[in-house]
Amino acid sequence: MAAPLLALSGVSKSFGAVAALSGVRLELHGGEAHALVGENGAGKSTLVKILAGVHAPDEGTITMDGRPLVLSGPADARAAGIVVVYQEPTLFPDLTVAENIFIGRQPQRSLRRIDVAEMRARAVELFGRLGVRLDPDRPARGLSIADQQIVEIAKALSLDARILIMDEPTAALSGVEVERLFNVARSLRDSGTAVLFISHRFDEVFALCQRITVMRDGRWVSTDPVADLTVDELVRRMVGRTVSSLYPKTAARVGEPRLEVSGLTRRGSFEDVSFTVRGGEIVALAGLVGAGRSEVGRAVFGVDRYDAGEVRVDGRRLSRGDPAAAIEAGLALVPEDRRQQGLVMELSVERNATLPRRWSLTRLGLLFGGAERRAAAIWTERLQVKAARLSDPVSTLSGGNQQKVVLAKWLATRPRVLIVDEPTRGIDVGTKAEVHRLLSELASEGVAVLMVSSELPEVLGMADRVLVMHEGRLVADIARDRADEESVMLAATGQGGRR
Asked: Nearest to residue 60, comparing CAs of 87, 22, 98?
């Protein structure tokens, strides 16, 4: 193989007493897609931030084209042709889509005036390369996670990257959008760009990449051609053990209706949605991105108001748009967007993990830190949240560990109805199996679980029934023994009927 375009050797990085990276090595070659995999907390995000110029390594060297490369900040990384598409979109909500793409690099006319027409035309051209249609004049506020990710990818394309780092870019994309993205990535790869692809989805890794580097506990484990690895071997290297079952679904006794939704309608989002989830059931709400699944979950919980219909929990009708009443009735919602909707990023891990039940931890109206820490420790330990201290801000955790904190927060309330929106988004394979086991365990205890998921294997592996939405309407209710990829996708694309 030719000399690497970019190489890391002996790179180490510590934050206080915590060693995030220790002696890591990595080689990226032009014309190659290289996967970086590992459990949450393995050091992948820290490595990406070093390549992006956000952090400086404590030890080790970085070379590019065989010459030493020192990155004093993100501007140096961009100047070197290193572009990162992060897992979480980082758009300015009050700027337009085009302004977000070219922020700090706007085309200019005479007297340094911004050439809005040129900027808009370039944005349209970028979206054309991606095969999507987005209005470049639309404000970023209100865009779906999928559309925000597309804008981030367009921003990266506009920089003509020599090295494109994609950190979980497909987590919120539909199958069609993923294939479009991969077509772009393959085109960039074939034109000589080095692509570093980070994902927990093994099917994507094997479909796109030529080599795979495995990290565990901040250390390099192995680098091998894709053709020399199997999924089982990859999992064993990542977690240091064998994961016996990714979908540990157990049969549970189905009880009385816990959640009843009748004629739920929110104009512009969904219409006449009706379904029932019984105690002991895991019911999946499937469909393509934009079908209205998350919007239904938010309306049921009371985060969004709805125009018509009703929601009942254990026969009790809930008030519209009243999350406090929903929590009191035994509902819990794990949202899709953990950073914006699931966590208060400036607060500590323990404070976030106990927010919904803080009053139950008080004595004479006072909240003591010891009680809060003990309560948070139970579920953060159960979900294996990797944090130096529970008193650290939750913003210091990796994306997957932040997702675990959101799950811990709501599972600790012991809900009667649990709504989970993309519960394993951005979570590593070992923790994904644990989350699935917890969902199955909750169902066996009589909890009604409504699971919104874009991952068909997860839907088929965990659901007792699959509800499928298409363009805001519920179009299919498929029993577990009749659910397969074909039947779900036919319904999701409007080709199947209610079963």
From this structure: 22
Model pTM above 0.70:
no
Task: Specify whether the CB–CB gap between 478 and 276 falls below 8 A.
Answer: no
Length of the chain: 499
State the sign of the Cα–Cα–Cα–Cα dihedral 310, 312, 317, 323: negative
Residue 16 maps to a domain? yes
387 and 306 in a common domain: yes
Instruction: Tell me the pLDDT tens digit for each residue of 126-145.
Output: 888 777 788 999 999 988 76
Q: What would the two tokens of residue 114 be?
A: 């911004």
Which residue range(s) make up the domain with 379? 257-492
Torsion of Cα atoms, 375 then 38 then 165 then 48, to 10°: 60
409 vs 393: CA distance, rounded Å: 15
Cross-strand pairs, 261: 275, 311
Phi–psi pair at 215, nearest 5 degrees: -120, 150
Bridge partners of 8?
Answer: 26, 62
How many angstroms separate the CA atoms of 301 and 417, rounded? 10
**Cβ-based neighbour number of residue 495 at 10 Å:** 11
Token pair belonging to 311: 């929601």
Give per-residue pLDDT as tens, 73-100. 999 998 899 988 876 678 999 999 999 9
Note whether 1 and 49 are within 8 A (CB). Answer: no
Of 239, 269, 302, the last residue of a domain is: 239
Are 360 and 438 contained in the same domain? yes
Residue 379 tokens, joined: 């579920």
In this structure, the answer to whether residues 274 and 360 fall within a common structural domain is yes
| Confidence at 498, pLDDT banded by 50, 70, 90 | very low
Pairing mode, if any, of strands 417-421 and 448-452? parallel
| Cα–Cα distance measured from residue 458 to residue 423, given in angstroms and rounded to the nearest whole number | 10
Residue type at 257?
Answer: P
Mean pLDDT of 186-195: 88
Residue with tokens 């993990």: 353
In 3-state terms, what secondary structure has residue 410? helix
Q: Does 205 map to a domain?
A: yes
Give the chain's mean pLDDT.
87
Tens-digit pLDDT profile for residues 342-386:
898 888 888 888 887 766 666 766 666 677 788 888 888 887 788
Domain shared by 332 and 213, yes or no = no
Domain edge (last residue) among 239, 273, 296? 239
Sheet of 59-64: strands edge to edge?
Answer: 18-28, 6-15, 59-64, 67-68
pLDDT, position 243: 57
Percent of the chain with pLDDT over 70: 93
